[in-house]
Amino acid sequence: MAAPRLFPSSGAWRIRAVRPADVLVLLALFALLFGVLELAPSLAAPVQPEHGAGAISTDPANIPYYAVRSLLRMFVALFLSVVFTFVYATAAARLPRAEKVLLPILDVLQSVPVLGFLTIVASTLVAFFPGSELGLECASIFAIFTSMAWNITFAFHASLVSQPRELDEAARVMRLTKWQRFWKLDVPSGTIPMIWNGMMSFGGAWFFLTASEAITVGGRSYVLPGMGSYVAAASDQDDLGAIGWAIVAMVILVVGVNFLFWRPLVAWAERFRVGDSATADRPRSLVLDLIRRSQLDDWAARGLRPAGRVLDRATRPFGLAEHPLRKPDARRRAGDLVFSTVVGLAVLLGVGEALDYIHRSVGFGQFGTAFTDGAVTFLRVILVLAGSTLVWVPVGVWIGMNPRVSRLAQPLVQVAASFPANFLYPFLMALFLALGIGLNFGSVLLMAMGAQWYILFNVIAGASTIPNDLRESMRVLGVRGWLRWKVLILPAIFPAYVTGGITAAGGAWNASIVAEYVTYDHRTVQAKGLGSFISAAAGAGDTARVVVGVIAMSLYVVLVNRFFWRRLYRLAERRFSG
């Protein structure tokens, strides 16, 4: 028998030829890097005295520059949102004691409108970079982050608590470390819902872009160059032509981002779909196909592999991805007592400081007005959720369970969801006035335009993860109609729908800020509600009343989440987690 060949063959030393795909991908990366480097000096430029609303030109020739500035802020905020999601959602899902605090905090955070965050945080962030535009950029990115992060975090947390039991048992049997489990199980199982909710969050951020690019610090207003500030300036000047150019630019931006970024991610995430049989018609992406034809992914993998091995070894001291089956009752009760005491004291201290500030500023009587207005807005939120559920659950199931339809419908849905609906508010107000519809009723439609897409995107994500073997089993057994919905579709999409419902409710509360307080034809039209209460206070520079409104809105959202949505979460975790 011939001796085995120990020395590598000649082919092992051969350098692969550079392919056309390699050249195209490298050129794209260099172009992206060059664009970021070109923008860098303007991001750290000194703040100019004329940095107000009048500094924004409505010349359509400036739209490409404004679009790039807004896109850069959006992607930085998206990256920060993903990092926040990985840390926060994992802690909430894996630490039972911390979950009791982290989830209510997340409820509060998603209920605080962008105006509330900007009012409280902008001065602090600007103070870190005195005299530099970088402080304003950080404040704007933080505001965009607050309109993205909560939805993605809820989606990833839902995927963690509803993981199939057999996957959890496999991770324990394989004795994966916590770091290995996170990257080999947790992230892959949550990739599909994270991507779909990332698309929705990215689209929702466009909705609040106008507020995110207008910052008030120390009684002075600053407006950063961007699409939101461009549209705001055009609206102030009644320049419908400029608004039309902005609408065209927004459609191009949304379609381009979908083609170059989201569509490749959706196609790539198909590798993480759970099921015993392959999907008949998998999503495709020309950009992903081009990247796969190139060798850059192989080169990047080779470069990162040693770092991955180092991290695997470094994280082993943190222990395995398992927890004891039973803890001593005395130890558990003592830990709960200490934890509850510390958290309770921190909450009491914060509430006491806030109440003292309100008492010294506007008095506690404002709470009565805020809670009364909040009840009106709460009724509108219920109408938005009911209407969105009836309309978009069947549509989302149809899109999610048909990859061919998804490939055609996703760009359309993405354009519709990402397009800032408040760009259309002046036209809708004209329609309401022509039909004699008051804003007290019309604001329901305006709120729905900003919140309904959360339910649609989550249902699409949930339906798309139904294993193909289960679908084929239903078809072979002849299960159709309502029975198919009852035994397959509704149980499969229920966890995703709950996530969509809770984020849609938060989105509706936030949308009330702009839906109940609309500027049209040089006048302001208000509807009775908590959104108009906060917007009017912010417009008058009354920080104390803004705080009162934010507290009232947070209490409404937290109580509904705690007594309604959390029970549905537990039901989804107990009965539909696989």
3D structure, described in words:
It contains 22 helices and four strands. It has helices spanning 20-43, 63-94, 96-111, 114-128, 133-146, 149-161, 165-173, 178-207, 209-212, 227-236, 240-268, 286-293, 296-315, 329-361, 365-400, 403-418, 425-435, 439-464, 468-476, 481-515, 530-539, 543-575; strands spanning 214-217, 220-223, 517-520, 523-526. The strands form two sheets. A two-stranded antiparallel ribbon has the order 1-2. Helix 11 packs antiparallel against helix 16. It is globular and about 60 Å long.
How are the elements arranged and paired?
Blueprint: H1 20-43, H2 63-94, H3 96-111, H4 114-128, H5 133-146, H6 149-161, H7 165-173, H8 178-207, H9 209-212, E1 214-217, E2 220-223, H10 227-236, H11 240-268, H12 286-293, H13 296-315, H14 329-361, H15 365-400, H16 403-418, H17 425-435, H18 439-464, H19 468-476, H20 481-515, E3 517-520, E4 523-526, H21 530-539, H22 543-575
Helix pairs in contact: 2-3, 2-5, 2-6, 3-22, 4-5, 6-8, 6-20, 8-11, 8-16, 8-18, 10-11, 11-16, 14-22, 15-18, 15-20, 15-22, 18-20, 20-21, 20-22, 21-22
Give the end-to-end Cα distance, rounded to a whole number of Å. 53 Å
Query: What is the radius of gyration?
Result: 26 Å
What do we call the CATH topology? MetI-like fold
Q: SSE order, as H and E?
A: HHHHHHHHHEEHHHHHHHHHHHEEHH
> Which strand order does the major sheet show?
1-2
Overall pLDDT confidence = 78
Number of domains: 1
Provide the CATH top-level class.
Mainly Alpha
Report the helical percentage.
over 70%
What class would the helix/strand composition place it in? mainly alpha
Shape: globular
